[in-house]
Amino acid sequence: MKAPFAWDTYSDQPSIIRDKALKRQMRSSALPSLIKTFLIALIMLPIAFLVTFLLPRKKIRGDEFFGLGVNLDKEPNTTPYLLDELNVQKLLIRIPLWEMEKLDDYVAFIKTFTHKEVTIALLQDREHITSPTLTRDHLTQIFEALDGFCDSYVIGSTINRAKWGFFSVNEYLDFYAVAYSLKKERFPHFKLIGSNVIDFELHFTAHTLFHLTNIRFDALGTLLYVDRRGAPENSQLGFSLLGKINLIDALIRLSSKTSNELIITETNWPIKNTAPYAPTSEHECVSEEDYASFMVRYHLLAFASQKVSCVYWHQLIAPGYGLIDNREGIRKRTAFEAYKTMLSHLSDAKFIRYRQKGDEYLLICSTPRGHLHVTWTLTSAPIYTYKATA
User: Fold this and answer.
1) What tens digit of pLDDT does each residue of 365-380 get?
2) Structural domain tally of the chain?
3) pTM assigned to the model
4) What domain range is 95 assigned to?
């Protein structure tokens, strides 16, 4: 990334833009798009809220649902063995578009996962946002190199944060259009995932779903973090995690710009005492024990919604937020074992019923081992028990 959009290698995200004059200038130039965002949200969000109560669940199976992010720069030789231990089958791998000189290394890394289902997350920088020709050239190189091995791509990330290079939804739609034109012309079998808004900022999501641009998403991706609210059951503006998922699902079903699929492409909690590796301030960080419990409960709630086709946990190895801390060798956190246990019970599960009563939560699924009952409270870790089917 070029200044002022510098990359923070500790937290695996762009650094905060310090140039306030630049931000004011760019936001001023983006004002027409921002007004459009506001007006679309003003109309569509109330409608979506009303129809959430009318939309049925889908049928999401456990073998489709669990995914994990892995990175080339995080112990690439050890990663395959750790994934085999977890028995996770779906992976999300980032390729930053500003690292095209490493494309051969990325392709070689990706092709080590021959028995996994790999989705590629293509990360943008400001240069690629402002240069459609450069973007088309680099996307073509990536698509050609991975055609026949990967056909699923997340196009862009975190589009509602200026440090990631976008200053308006219109800029993102133009950026996505480059990938979409390539799909139509040369790669019709590819699955393109947009629009990848971070956090519960549905005014941006609404704009990406209701517009006149000639594009379409094959699935809607969202970086649905809830870490600033603490536990995943906690609410924001009256919406718990389940409520947020239901509202996003309603927007999707109302839109003609996407298929009926919702994917959580990134989420996690930052971990205490890991600065500068934590991606947030210490105030939002949680203990390793809470991280493990929140992670499992997030997955259970998202699976209970039956409206999320896959959750990609971010990620396997990262000192500030991963299942493994690699600052001094490979140290498996409590969350690593919790994720492993969760998959051992739910990777072949089919949803039957979900119930919340006060502070008590119950998820019931069918499995080859009998009916699985998962129970938890806000102060206790999930418990897995089996009951014989009738």
Assistant:
1) 999 999 999 999 999 8
2) 1
3) 0.96
4) 29-349
